[in-house]
Amino acid sequence: MRRSVGGGLAALFFCWAVLCAALGIAPRAAWAGAAVIGDVGPQTVGTQLASGLTVVARKSGAAPLAALEFWVRCPANGYDGMQPGIARLAAFALADHKPPVGPSLRDAVRAAGGRLGISVYPEATQFSVVAPAYDMSNLLSALLGAVLHPAIDQASFESGRTRLAAVQVAAEEGVDQVLRDALFAQLFSAGPLHDSTYGNPISLRAMTLNAVAGFTTTAYVPGNEIVVVTGAIDPASVSQRVAQFGMPSGGRVPAMPASPQNQQAAAPRALHPLATGVTGIALGWTGPPISDERAATAMDFWSDYLTDPDSGVLVRAVRTADDGAAFSGQFITLRNPGVFFVAVSGQRLDTTAMAGVLRAAVANSVGHRMSDAQFVQARDAFVTHLLRTMQTDEALADNYGWYFAQGALSYSPSATGPDLSGDYFARVASLTPDYVLSVAKRYLMAAPSVVILPAGDQSSRGVSQ
Fold this sequence. Notes:
Elements: H1 7-22, E1 35-36, E2 44-48, E3 54-59, E4 65-73, H2 86-96, H3 105-111, E5 115-121, E6 124-132, H4 136-148, H5 154-173, H6 175-187, H7 201-206, H8 209-219, E7 225-231, H9 235-244, E8 269-270, E9 279-287, H10 293-307, H11 313-321, E10 326-332, E11 338-346, H12 351-366, H13 372-388, H14 393-405, H15 423-430, H16 433-444, E12 449-453
Parallel strand pairs: 3-7, 8-12
Antiparallel strand pairs: 1-2, 2-3, 4-6, 4-7, 5-6, 9-11, 9-12, 10-11
Helix pairs in contact: 2-5, 2-8, 10-15, 10-16, 11-12
């Protein structure tokens, strides 16, 4: 999500550069009539078409695979904020729609031996295809056809409703998902960040074919969208193929609805118990917007320092207090504001005691400045952890898509090379012990929002509204 680099990392980058040369990766290129966008990394073509569609194509890796992703910047609960889950239903229906000629997107990917993923975030929808590179051209056409010219009929609408109903049940039983959704509902009083992207059974029953089709007509316009292709590909030819695909008219790009912060967010909120009997607690703080790139990078660094599964300060504190508890946490980079959250759950978790453990560990870490040596070690670990998450074609594409959706494509960690060039790693290199501490104090010294999942009988489930 997302200087000085240690010798081990330098060797890693050197090997990466040698591999790129051995593969004969061509320099970036663009085609006539398309505007070149900001620096998005080596061996990459990055352009914006006249229609407004953004295209990023990058050659990476040696395996004969490709990751194709299409991201749409749109609110998961609709432009009026009254239709929780509509973006997820729309995506399911588009993937299942059978055009007059040829298979649905879902069937085309399955026939090619690939994998289709649909992820919906409060402010973006992602279609992801991972498949053999030799079939990339056909699958790219299927993906573009499904989302550049969105069509939903009664059959695909009903299929999407069935799929959404199923994932709603699964989401209600996922402790991390329940805690995160409840925390965001506590932090924000309205808007896309307030509602679960899954919606609920009531909102699902109220949705109509016309409403979902109208949502796609509004949201799925080229200026809201990016195509990302990474893997064993030729970036220039892929980008040219996208440019030659039948493009819809540009269309008006709708504004993203605001998500105002809840002024009473610090008041703890108790949830209804889950049928699983698991208890849990989540704490959340708002953080810097993505437009403040240096502060957002500092919070990424601080998040890694606190929540890394192997060495994080909070992880160690939780394990000491309850070695059977499950922990999750991260800083989520968003347009405004970002959110740092932590969640802990377990069968016999003492939520009151764990809240004290978490708050004390955060306060202690923010209460003192790292030495220069400690900071360099922590920063090198942060870079190592980040690179570890960027080793697959799909992970590279994910980063491009996420940062595009937040309006900062060139800030994506994927937009870098063996020398750690690019905006993101330049921000990492600019961090100092004093600066990261000042950012942590600015955001983490405030009282956090708290949601508690208490123990209950086996017949109760769900989240209070």
